[in-house]
Amino acid sequence: MLTMLSAFNKFADKTSFPTTFTYALASIRYLLHRISLPSSDINPEDTLVHVLWMFAHNVAFDELPDEQIAAFSDLMEYAVVHSSVFKPEREWTDAQMILVKLYSAMVGASSSQRPRHNYWPALRPLVEFLIIQYDTPPASLGYASYDDTYFLFFDGMCNILGFGLRHGVQTVYNVFLETQCLDVFRSHHLRPGLVRVINGYVAGLAAPHTLIDSQRHLDYLHEPENLFLACCILAINGWQDFRCLANGEILQTQLPGEICRGIRALARLRPSDPSWDQCRQKLRDLQDDREEFFVKQQKWEWDELEDLKPEDIKQAKDNIRLAVEELDRFFSDWKNTKLRFLMHPRESISIMWRFPSRIYQNFRYPQRREGDEENVSS
Length: 378
Known about the structure:
This protein is mainly α and 378 residues long. The chain contains 17 helices and four strands. It starts with a helix and ends with a helix.
């Protein structure tokens, strides 16, 4: 067996790698190769799922040296581009799910830390596969449920995209724009994971990343249909998102306060954009919509997607109303601030500089400051 695997061991000369790590990679590569061959007396995909599951349980990616991350990145590219695992099927498979989870762990999306490397292998073909499989249901949860019963395969890719966008990863931004992700989202029903994508996109564009063509992405986001879509995702889709506590209780994760913060952060990016007037009007109209928009939406119910029930539509409309009110408050404050500055520009500039000027004087003339304090005390 070891002799057979040695042909697939690309890192046998890496003496710094643990033997178990190199043979695990070789085993996965061998099984990926076997899957593309004609059927035999064993099912290589079942074996692959088992090996991937064991690998996921025994490898801590946040502790791996960059050299080993690069080795796994090479394997991931082989799995996505050259093997037959990521081919469109009638349902997501366990092997696809665990590979997406491993990709997420490799780039750091499974933790709250910032990316510590720039290995994002085969991201574009992976996103293109996701687009093809957008409406495809998951298979029955087998090994796929190894750490999150409620994990949806599509949402795993949303975690990866949202993480990369939030932290200004140029590869993710390029793929997001090249594949026109917002246009894809708009042509399908909304999914819970899209909230993390939009929040990550907004946070990333608000941060001073020098490697990103922010202007181009802001233009894309503020296209009228895309801006309306982003608001809808932040407002009505959060109610679908949930997490399971240790005691089995399921909590809604997108609370009203989070909806308001997400909407306000989006508005801050470019409040003067003319698309906002149209977007806000469409959101108001959506509160009275009875069929056109909501009939296209579906909600994940345990093991399948279902059409929205009347109570679901009511909750979505309540969230839209909340978003509209938040936008009204934001733009009212923004216009008042802008109006005050236009009416009294000198006074505004004077106020803006008065405080830092006072601090400078205190540091520049400490004796004068002490004298002022003595005069006050006397």
